[in-house]
Structures are given as structure tokens and as C-alpha cells.
Amino acid sequence: MIPRNANTKSRRPDYRTRRDRTRRRTEAFDRQMPALTKAYLDWHLSISNAASGDCGFFAHHKNTSQARENTAEGSIQIKVVDVFSYVKTLCDLQGVQFYAYLSRQFSIALDVYLQILTSVNMLVDEALRRGDPHWRLKHACPACTYKLQGEVPMKFSLLYAMDGNDSLKRVLKKSTQDDLDSDDNSPLAQRSSELPTTQVVGGDRYLLNEYIEQFARDSPADMLSLDDDKDNPCAGRWKNMRDEKTKKMWGVFDESGIFMSICRHGFSLVIADMVQSGEQAKYPLAVVSKLLDTFGSNLGGGYDIGCRFKTTLSRSSLGQRARELNHTSLVGAFHGHAHQRLCQLDHLATYVDGLGLEDLEGCERTFSKSNALASSVRYASVFHRRQAIAHYFEHNDDYEIYANLSTFLYNNYKQALRIISDGTNSLPKLMHELGLEDKSVFDTWLAEERAYLTSLSHEPNHETIQMEYWQKLLNLSGSKKDLDAATAAWTVTTPSTVEFGPHDIASTNRIETTRRHAMENYEKDLKAVQELETKLGVTRRWEQEDQEWKDVGRLVANRKFQRALDHLEGLVVARIFELSKMNQAGTGYKLRKHIGKALQVRSAAIRTALDRYNTAARALRPPRASLSWEEVVEYAFLSDFDLLRDARQDISQRPWATPTGRLTMDTYFKTRRAREEIQRLDIEIRRLATYLHDESRYLTECEKQLQTLHPGLAHQVSLHRKIRARFAEHHYQRLHDISMLEGFTGSITPVCIPAQLVADGLSMVPEGEDDALEDLEDDENADVDGEEHARILESILQVTLDV
Predict the structure, then answer these.
(1) CB 89: neighbour CB atoms within 10 A?
(2) E strand or H helix at 486
(3) d(C-alpha 677, C-alpha 91), whole Å
(4) Which residues contact 73 (CB under 8 A, 6 or more apart)?
(5) Given its phi and psi angles, is residue 743 left (phi above 0), alpha (psi -120 to 50 degrees) or beta?
(6) Is 134:294 a contact under the CB 8 Å cutoff?
(7) Which residue has the higher pLDDT, 645 or 514?
(8) Which of 169, 264, 524, 571 has its CA at a distance of 20 to 30 angstroms from the CA of residue 751?
């Protein structure tokens, strides 16, 4: 035995688990949070006064020299440039050795610091009368939600996009087997070892799991299980997110990703964690429910499988409410080109009135940036993962999306004006070439194409029975030939007076068995033919020389043609869709030829499928034109294939099916959408101009009123105001640029609050909130009448929030 050093202290056994220590530490900091928040407010105000040289807005509150002395004692000032800095780097900067426990302590300190900031922000919101849990969502985007009196009503009061993303997965940390209550050792049965936390992260930005689960009973096994939906032309088409394709990762990951929605300008609305599941319908249902509760009627939501989701929504418990509030399910422009043409006519952005130029693909752009979080949240705890995601989107909204809001409006206005200008020049020429005078004909063409494609969605029932009868006749003919051959062989080998040996008897038995089987098959096929003849009312059995036989033969050839076309379409469009993702489809002629040659070299499967298609096309009567490789490469979207599907009639000469007719129709609808975009932008631009005016004025007055009652909180209001105020100059410059565009039809003059309401003064101490402020600042003895200030404040807030 190694002797114990006399100077070594005995260590008391610690029987607490990590979960116990974490829970106790969290509860201890929760009890101290009010005092920590007060201390933070005092400290932050003191260093602000010290940095400003004891002059400025809050100079009367603290003595500068005293603040500097307090700061200098036992502490140093550090400018934090990255809260995710490595602790090892901090140790190197301080010249100390790194120990593993320092990382843990840094993480705990950071959590407490962020919790303090959250507490301060809640106080600021209460002081600004923005303490409603849903206030952020209701005012998420100035251009979408800051509605003004006298606005022209729009078809869609708010446009949003929603989608799932599996990059922000989190590895499941499982409990040890001793902690399990069940004997089930399967991966899904093992529960997480994470400690449930009472800390709220993300505010109303994150949907609670309990809220989501109430829609689980409305959700099929997965989002894409309704393959038998006869009203949906895209049924069975989407398979990439089926549960059976993603369930293998559930034993590894707890949260398999996020499902979120954003407004058309990019501001995050709500986020839901996808927990041990694929992209189930309960997630978009929960999102839609939350948005309907918050924004009400006339919402338009884009989703990559919006056509399928529309059916799911209508069948769910939300269906009646969604119909009453006139909710519209749409498909994004990028994903829409992978849908069937019939689906595009109802859901694609180009053909939806009131949508403007919005592509409803903002989630893809959002995820392209948020994917950078993947490595930091993969092995994080539940709390830290959600904390990182929530803070990221909060920062992104304030410093990225808001900063680019006026630029978004400016670029969209320029784009819309350019499309209108191009359409105004080219559309009359195209219409003259087609001999058209009235633009209303394009809506008629669209209706004709919809009716035509609808008629092709299902084979006529009588044709299906005729093809089945034709096939049974072929089977009967084959079984008749087999029976005749077996009978002939049996007749030759029938035993007579001649003596047979054992070998001959065995051979005869086999022939007899073959004849019996052939007779049974013939009788079975004959019975099937007779049953179909009864259904069809056939009085005389068809023969190969009959016209009916030839007609049905053409139908069978058509079916083979359709299948060959389906196979070719699947191969070609899959590659073209990938090229579209790389922004290469629809490029110049030379580049398309170059891409086509590259595909031709490595796409033997396409060439084989093309040969099979051409063979099937030549078998039709009359034969269909063969396709060359160059023609196939030129097909940009699935809609080009859909027009090849009808072998019963030739629609190639219909106006809406000709290349010129389709170009003219697309030009017309793009121009119409551009005019709608101008109308929406005129409204959004004035909303932004008014918001900039009102928000700055309102927060400045709030800051002044709070100076008397609580300088520390007033300082935080000042910091809150400066977050977005830094972009005001840029926004005003962009608004001016928009107003100088040739063709601008809106106004950048804000709708102002009546000046007399502001002149009366404001108080940021609403009725019933004095106690909360007194708890933070017991030594403040302001002799201000709180109720009178609350009354004045309520007047101006009512005007501000109602505008």
C-alpha cells in the first residue's frame, strides 16, 4: 500500500450526481438573478459614465472618479469580440496554464451572463410596454407588420416561407442502463441524460414541444404518406424526407433538425425542434396555427411541398379555421419547378395573383447561413443548443436582416421596374406575332391547359378495362396454344395395346400432368375473358383482325410510351434540377451546349432511356416524333415533359403549347406579377419610413422619462435604441434612392404621430410596474406621479401601436 502523505488532505466523498449539481447551481443562480440584474444595471451605468468623462445624459447619477476606482480594484476591463473564443486562447493571453475545469467555469459564467442580459431585456420590454409574450412576433418585421391607416388592402396580408433543415442536429446523450425504468434496450427506448431546465430560451421565437404535440394526432405517419390522394397531382412524388429514410438516425440524434418560418424579408418568425422524427406534418401545422393566432386572416405560406401540405391542413383540426381565415398554401419558385405542371398552375408563384415577385424561398437562404452553427450544436446540451440557435437568429434579425431591409426593397423595386419595362417592349411584339389583341386570352389559355392536364391525370375507366380485356385475350391465346401442344403430345403417347416399360409410363404421366395444367390455365383465362366481356358488353369475342383489337393495341402502346417517358423524365430532370441549384440552368446557348456535352459523356443511363422512349414513340399510331439528345438537354423544367404525355391527340399546335405561345404567356404573367410587386413595395416602403420616424422618436422620449426614475434602466433603453439606430442613415439613403427611381409611384413620407401627444410628455412606468422598478432601485426617491405618467404614456402608445 502506498503510504498517504501526511500533508495530503482527505477528500470528503461526494455522492451527488452531475445532474444534482447542475440543478442546484441553476436554482441558486435563479434565486440570485434579481440581485445580479440590479448589480449589472449599476455596473454598466457606472462604466458608461466613466467612459464618457462624466458628461452626457446620465452624468448626474454617478461620480466618475468613484466609478473608476471601483472598476480598478481587483478587476480588468476586457473588450469581448467573440463570446465563442477558446478558453485556451484566454489562458495564453493571461499567461496561465490551461486546465479543463476552466472551460466548464467559463461556460457557467457565460450562461449566467446571458441570463442576466435576458433579464435586463425583459425589464426593458416591460418599461417600453412591450412585455406581451407575443409582442416580438407581432412586430417582427417593420415592412410586414407596421400597418398604417388608410392602406390599400392586399390579397396577402403577410407572406412567409417555412421549411425544415437537418443540419442543426444534436447527438443524443443517453442515460446509463442502471438509470432506465424500462427493460427495453433499443436505442429509441433509452432516454436522454440531459437535465430538464426551467430557463426560458428564445422567448416566443421557439415553439414548445407540448404545443407541437397537440397536432401529432392530425399528422400522418410522415409528411408524405398520402400517396393515394387523387386530388394531388404530386402524390407519391416526394420521398427524400420520409420517416423510413431518416429513422436510422433517431438512435443517434435527439433533435434531428429545426423547422422554422420567416417572413418574405427574412425575419425569423417561429422555430420548432424536430425531435427524433423526420419532417412530420405536426411541425408545419404548429407553425401555421401560431401564425394564424398572431396575424389572423389572408396569410400566404410557401413550402417546398405546399401542394401536399394544403391537403394535410384541410384534413386537420386546423382545416376549418384556415379556410375561415383564408390561408393559402403555396409552393416556392425554386422547388415549384420540380412539381407536376398541373400542380404548378395552382401553386407556382408565377401564376398566383397577388404574390408579386416573391419566390418564397427565403428559408433556403437562411439555412445557408445558419448551417455554420452545426458544428457547435452537434454535441451541445439541449439548453445550450437552443440557446445558440435562439441567439443566432436574434442577432441575425437585428444586425443582418434589418440592416439589409431597405436594400431589399430597393433591389426589388428596381427588378420589378426592369421586368415591367422589358415586358412593355416585348409583349406587344409577341402578341402581334401570334395575332392576339386582348391580354385576357392568357388567362383562358391557362384554364385550357389546366383542363387538358386534368383530363390526362387518370386513364379513362373504359380504356383501362379494354386494355385489361386485350391482355386477357392475349393470355387466352397463349394458353390455347399451350393446351393444343399438350393435347397433341398426349394423343401421340396414349397407351394402347403396345407394352410400355417403367420409363415410358413415367414419361406418359408427365405429359398427362402437363396437359392437365394447360387445360386448367386455359379454363382460368377463359373465365377471366368471359367476366370482362360481360363488363364491356362484348357480343362477339375480339380477334386480331378486328378494329377493336387494333384500337386497344394502340392504347397498350401508349401505356408503354408513358412509362418510357416517365423513366426518361426522372433521369433527365434529376440532373437538370441539380444544375438549377448551381444556378446553371437557363444560361446562355453556348454554356448549355457545353453542359450537355459533359452530361452526354457520363450519362449512359439517359441515352439508354432515350432509345427506349424513341422505340415506344415509333410504335404509336400515328408515331410520335423522336427526341434527340440536344432536345432533351434543352428541357429546363418538368412542364416541358408534361406536354408530351398525350398520345390520344396532338396538342403541339395549340397556341399555349407552342414555344412562342408559352414565351408570350410567361412574359405576360411575369409582367403582371411585377406590377403587383410594385403595389406591395409602395406599401412596405412607407411602412418602413414611418417605423424609422416613430421608433426613434418613441424610444428617445422613453429614455428621457426613465432618466428621472431609473437611470440604469434608461441607459439600457438607450443601448436598445442604438442597436437599430445605427442603420437609420443607411435606410434613409436607400429610401431616397428608391424615391429617385424612374417609375416610383409610392411615398417615403412617414405617417406621423400627432405632435401634441408627444409634447405632453411620456412616462415609462406603466400602471402596476412601479414595484418591479423599486425592487431594482431601492435608493431612488423620485417624486413623480406614476399614474399620471402612465396615463400620458398610454395615450401615445395607443397611437403608436395602432398605426
Answers:
(1) 11
(2) helix 461-492
(3) 55
(4) none
(5) left
(6) yes
(7) 514
(8) 264
The average pLDDT across 629-649 equals: 55
Q: 630-636 long-range contacts, Cβ below 8 Å, gap at least 24?
A: 630/596, 632/568, 632/572, 632/606, 633/572, 633/592, 633/595, 633/596, 633/599, 633/600, 634/592, 635/572, 635/573, 635/576, 636/337, 636/576, 636/580, 636/585, 636/586
- Mean of per-residue pLDDT scores for the chain: 75
Grid coordinates in use for 705? 422619462
Q: Measured between alpha carbons, how far is 352 from 369 in angstroms, rounded to an integer?
A: 29
CA angle 260, 263, 264 (to 5 degrees): 125
In Å, how far are 19, 384, 510 from 175, measured between CA atoms? 11, 19, 67
Q: Quote the Cα angle for 312-313-316, to 5°.
A: 85
Nearest CA to 312 out of 398, 387, 226, 237 is that of 226
Distance CA 259, CA 88 (A): 35
Beta bridge partners of 160: 263, 301
Residue 683: predicted pLDDT: 95
Whole-angstrom distance, CA of residue 564 vs CA of residue 619? 12
Using the predicted structure, report yes or no on whether residue 411 has a pLDDT greater than 90. Answer: yes
Across 666-682, b (16+ Cβ under 10 Å) vs e yields: ebbbbbbbbebbbbbbb
Detail the DSSP E strand segments found in 60-175. 158-165
Cα 794 from chain centroid (whole Å): 39
Which residues touch 654 (CB under 8 Å, ≥6 apart)? 448, 661
What φ, ψ does residue 712 adopt, rounded to 5°? -65, -45
Which tens digit of pLDDT belongs to each residue from 418-453?
999 999 999 999 998 888 888 889 888 888 887 777
Residue showing cell 416517365: 566
Count of other CB atoms within 10 angstroms of residue 252: 12
> From the centroid of its chain, how far is CA 338?
16
Measured distance between the N- and C-terminal CA atoms of the chain, rounded to whole angstroms: 82
Do the Cβ atoms of 641 and 394 come closer than 8 Å? Answer: no
Q: What are phi and psi of 397, to 5 degrees?
A: -65, -45
**Whole-angstrom distance, CA of residue 269 vs CA of residue 140:** 7
Residues 6+ apart with CB under 8 A from 556: 467, 470, 471
3-state secondary structure of 800: helix
**Using omega within 30 degrees of 0 as the cis cutoff, is the peptide bond preceding 659 cis?**
no
CA distances from 615 to 630, 656, 689 (A): 18, 28, 64
CA distance 336 to 636: 13
Q: What pLDDT digit, counting tens, does each position of 470-497 carry?
A: 677 777 777 878 877 888 877 766 555 4
At residue 416's C-alpha, the angle toward residues 411 and 417, to 5°, is 100
What is the pTM assigned to this prediction? 0.72
